[in-house]
Amino acid sequence: MIRFLSRRLAYMALTLLLVSLVSFVIIQAAPGDYAEIFAAQKAATGAIITLADIEAMRIELGLDQPWYVQYGRWLAGALHGDFGYSWAWRRPVGEVIAERMPLTLTIAFATLIFMYAVSIPVGIYSAVRRYSFGDYAFSIAGYLGLAIPNFLLALVLLYISQQYFHQSVGGLFSPGYENAAWSWAKVQDLLAHLIVPVVVLGTSGTAFLTRAMRAAVLDELNKMYVLSARASGLSPMQLLLRYPVRMALNPIASTLGWRLTYVISGAPIVGYVLALPDTGPLFLNALLNQDMLLAGALIFIFCALTIIGTFVSDLLLVLLDPRIRLE
Amino acid sequence: MSALAEIPVLSVNQLSIAVDNDGTPVPITDDVSFTIGRGEVLALVGESGSGKSVTALALMQLLGAGLRIARGEIVFETHDGFRTDVVRLGAKGKAIEALRGARMGMIFQEPMSSFSPIHTIGAQIAEVVQVHEKVGRAAARARAAELLGKVGIPDPVGALDRYPTEFSGGMRQRAMIARALICKPSLLIADEPTTALDVTIQGQILQLLRSLKREFGMSILFITHDLGIVAQMADRVAIMYSGRIVESGPVRDIFRHPVHPYTRALLDAVPRLGDIDRGRRIQPIAGAMPNIFDAPSGCRFHPRCPVRDMPRCAEKLPPRAEVEKHFVECIHGERELAK
Amino acid sequence: MSVIDVPAATTKSRRKIRRPDLASQWQLMWWKFKRHRLALFGIVVLGLFLVMALFAEAIGIGPPGQRDTAYVAGPPMLPQLIDAEGKFHLRPFVYGVKPVRDKVSLRMTYQVDTAQIWELGLFVKGAPYRLFGVVPGDIHLFGTDKGFIHLFGTDFTGLDIYTRSVHATRASLGVAVVGVLVSFILGAAIGGAAGYFGGLLDDLVMRIIEFIRSIPTLPLWLALAALLPRDWSPLATYLAITVILSLLGWTWLARTVRSKLLATRQEDFVLAARLSGCSDTRIITRHLLPSFLSYLIVDTSVAFPEILLAETSLSFLGLGLREPVESWGVLLFAAQSIRSIDQAPWLMIPGAFVIVAVLAFNFVGDGLRDAADPYSRS
Q: Where do the ABC transmembrane type-1 domain residues begin and end (chain A) (predicted)?
């Protein structure tokens, strides 16, 4: 077990390193470097910039060094939360991200909880009452959930709330609460605002997980040990909860990391469409403006989050499954 | 045979099981009848696909999806006056659940997959007691440890907290037997319990089952395709072919004086010491058992039968002949039994 | 026959009994696939989409680039059968519209004019076109003799959303098909090499796949798409986006190919074939390939909706395909702001095409998945 964990840990470190390299490549791949962009900006304001000035700035910023030195510097900075300077925001990248990250994390975790809270009971129900009306209804809902692109669902909900509830879904708080001190009412307000992003972000994942749970339970129900437990006189309910469901939870729990990857993957678009003050619009605008230091930093953080999430789900699996624990 | 064996624990009468094939029921077993007396071991012998395992599952109403009991009765009565028709109990509900594991125990062919891999052996055995009797967790665990000791597992208390993957195949089958017997059932159904095991382990498990049978005073329905095991274990034997019992009777009678051509062929296919010296070769049975989807008309064995009498054998089922509890379903049955 | 009281013995029902024990693998798969009603339905829908993509000019109403200045940002016009006076018309019709200026917002809106009835017809003569760029024609699936019809309304520049959605089928499905093809080739080649050579290469490939799977890919593809030079021609962008998208799907296929290759290589039936003197070619084509081809088909069918959805999302954000290339995602780009969907919610209609296509792909994929393992129960 110690070996298993240390292997996963080493793997995580290696993946993080790879991801940082990928992010750095993306930063470098954008046309023009920081000095040129800076010069262009200055020139636009009427200041006179000579080529010599640009060159001096390059040297000052270390842009004349070979790529691996630049990468080393960037990585060293990144580990301290220093991701460089965003020219679009005219502020340090780390600062801009830090402001918006908590909301992204809140939405991601709320979505994960939502997905599991819905899909596990529904999946069990559908497996046990296979081909029942409920099973069909959930399965149709699931098909739809998988087929609707996130952004379209966001648009539709946006339209509905605008048209019929005369309420904007953008943002996290109603106008009155934005600067108010924390209170129960403010928490409620926050939760109410979280519902739409969470549903939008979680729908297809929930549909996917429900199907996985249903299939896993069905699969387990056909196992020999279920027959042998039935032959021992367990009632269907005792049996179901003790064995197949418990077994089916393993693959579901072990996919937690992937689900997180999935949620983080979809979050930028949803945040963008719903105009949430999270990292979504930040990321997409950075891409559209080619503000690559910011975009690269976000990619690195997104990836790091999912890699850590995968590690946590590995830990969970070890706790759930004695077969791995005993290895 | 003892006098007790005359009192039946289980009488199966004309049991027919059908499988659903796209809305059309197709019979798998047909008109199966047998009895098991108190303390008696009945061996149900047949090739794979003959319907013997399905019959075993039907006895506990454990038939899988698509299978159902089409006809017949399964009368089960124990020494304490409990009597019921399992067919009438249905596959669901408290009544049948109270029967399973408590009055009838069952062990399966695959000791590897008969336990959940993520629960401890102790938990899986103790829960059977807790389901059927009003006992606490500690008492149930103590009972489980006691049984594990009885089936010959070393350090039974320590074994409670171990997982099935830590056990060998033979040990798991022992644990399985402990689970099946913990509530002292009157009947143990053993569905090829030694098929998946090594020969030496096989012998140990058979030995264990014999001694436990004496200790618990239970009856055993032993399902197997191995005539060697039948000779070691059984008091009586029933031979199944393509969903029908073609011959049944005391082991001694059947082995010494097999009547049905299929039984004879089965016995001929068993190698014996000295075969080679005597220049005897094993005689395989020509042909294959018919598929349930196109069972032949009349006697189902007739396409492979060396002594068939056409067209009579293909026209209708042969009559059932009996001499001193030795039954046979063959057109030559009466004549042969009389010899 | 036996004497059991089930109606199996009658000749009629006996003929109906299937013989799973005698059927070939493909026959079993077809039986299972047919049992999946939704999958059959999905096949039909995909067939319709194919027809739509091939004959877009004839199925659309006019040229997709034609702006109707008489009906800008107009709502969908629904065909009717019963008019305002309750009279039944055998031929469906649409009411005429007249422009009105909204007194509050001063915006141009359209009012249904029940006095005017524009009858619809099937296969009417309309704007000339060239099918597949060669065959000239002027027959359209439906249209009006007088007036006009905008089934799904028009956008802010007066473009017909119905016609554009029909034409967009080409780019959307085209990207998906090419993307899947590329990922299929990538997956089969990489997975095949890993499975065949094994050892270090196999390890390396597996680690790479694991790595790609463990990172959130969409932001990465977004970034790659954003890096495409803006001055590339739409066609070059189109190709580049297709390649980027095909990078999404190959990992699944590669894993399937590799694991199946490894597993089947050691199967007894392959050894038996080898021992009985079969050539490598014969072993691969007659024994290995059939044993896992079905799984490959399933994985391919899963990759379709994935790529379609990714393309739609990218284009919707303005990072994927761009005008004048038309895909459903490009059309949805117009629906990006809350203001535009507030004024013209029908701009979201192309999204319905995406949903229907993804549903159809998923249905077929499910049917294939069930059928792929014909020897499994139920």
A: 101-311
